[in-house]
Amino acid sequence: MKSAIGAKPNQRQTLRSLGLKRINHTVVKEDRPEIRGMVATVPHLVTVEEIS
């Protein structure tokens, strides 16, 4: 959703680990505790939606 410019290095690495490279980039991930933890690290930079 937002740019990683100006974010802390660990937050930029978390976005890369999630597969997010650009603003408005979309990825689909499994709902696992590891992924939820990564999203919890950068809640101000991403938007999370559940798909069915």
SSE pattern? HH
Low-confidence stretches: none
Distance between the termini: 21 Å
Evaluate the radius of gyration: 10 Å
Kindly name the structural category.
Answer: mainly alpha
Mean pLDDT: 93
For the largest beta-sheet, the strand count, sense and barrel status come to: none
Number of helices: 2
Helix content: 25-40%
Outline the structure in words.
- With 52 residues, the chain is mainly α.
- The protein has 2 helices and no strands.
- Helix 1 (9-18) crosses helix 2.
- The N and C termini lie far apart (21 Å).
Secondary structure layout plus pairing:
Blueprint: H1 9-18, H2 33-41
Produce a short descriptive summary.
The protein has 52 residues and is an all-alpha fold.
List the keywords.
mainly alpha
